[in-house]
Amino acid sequence: MIENIEQIKKLMLTCDWQPVIKKIIGFIEKHFEQSRAKKIIIGLSGGIDSSTTLALLIRSIGKENVIALVMPHYGITEREDLEDAYMVADKFGVEYINIELADICSNIKHRLSPFIEIDKKTYGNIIARTRMIVLYAFSNSMNGIVAGTSDKSERTIGYFTKWGDAAADIFPIVDLYKTQVREVARQLGVPNKIIMKPSSPGLWKGHLAEEEMGITYDKIDPILFAINELKIPPEKVKEIDGIDPIEVDHVIGMIETSEHKKAYPYPKVQDIIKGE
Which end of the chain is less congested by CB atoms within 10 angstroms, N or C? Predict the structure, then answer.
């Protein structure tokens, strides 16, 4: 019987993480071998998700088989994030390539501006999708596959760009909630600075995930874990001590309004064609 949020956090975060890491490593090895790829390409931002995914890739297939792309946008990417990305790449000894996106993205904006208004969010999504174009260009040229860096928190609440960071060939950490990713990162030797830094998609100046969402991952994850993993109905989750019912509604709202981002809606017509 779950009575308070601390019980949920204990279930969610108190774990022998080595079997989890071993299973993810086996997953990466399996798909790398099955794809007959020569490289795995990853976008490295200097954040917790990409840094943890990079560490897992290197443990599984070796640094010589991993290419990290650092993709800053001049005037938007924080210098500290850029330095953190380089630090992580150096720590794990992986080859990295710096690709500046400002010219590419601003050219798209320039070409589209006569027809539509390019606001901050629209331009941010252009950046996210340009990153994936670059990742797949490298993947195609190197006979590689792209590793996604999304976690379960982001995927569940729809905090991602469709055809941007949601596009990849494998998703090593997509069954780990954000706060769980931080625990795995500690096991893998990801620098503490990276583990503790606020999450940021980096799609506009000063962009912080929790600020945009209006709620922290420390509050999101216990709610998601209770609903998805413990199978507690949302109305019952609202009754758990330490959980704000308003925040449960907020999380449920994010899940529901982002359903279109997680599926491929289409009308089924084959029954008509078959005469059924």
Answer: N
Which tokens in the block code for residue 149? 């860096």
Question: Which one-letter DSSP state was computed for residue 199?
Answer: P
The CATH number of the domain holding residue 94 is: 3.40.50.620
Residue ranges of alpha helices (H) inside 66-216 are 79-92, 102-112, 120-141, 152-157, 178-188, 192-196, 209-213
Tally the domains of the chain.
Answer: 1
Q: Encoding tokens for residue 9?
A: 């956090």
Which of 175, 181, 168, 176 is CA-nearest to residue 136?
168
Q: Please indicate, yes or no, if residue 55 is contained in any of the structural domains.
A: yes
How many Å apart are CA 191 and CA 59, to the nearest integer? 16
* Residue 266 CA from chain centroid, whole number: 26
Answer yes or no: is 275 within a domain: no
Q: Which two tokens stand for residue 228?
A: 């998805």
Residue 73's CB: how many other CB atoms inside 10 A? 22
Query: How far is it, in rounded angstroms, from Cα 3 to Cα 254?
Result: 25
Express each pLDDT in 105-121 by its tens digit.
999 999 999 999 999 99
Q: Is residue 272 part of a domain?
A: no
Range of the domain at 78: 5-265
Task: Measure the CA–CA gap between 105 and 126, rounded to whole angstroms.
Answer: 7
Over residues 189-204, the pLDDT tens digits come to 999 999 999 998 889 9
Share of the chain above pLDDT 90, in %: 90
* Euclidean distance between CA atoms 65 and 154, whole angstroms: 27
Beta strands in 135-268 (DSSP E): 144-146
Structure tokens at 188: 């893998």
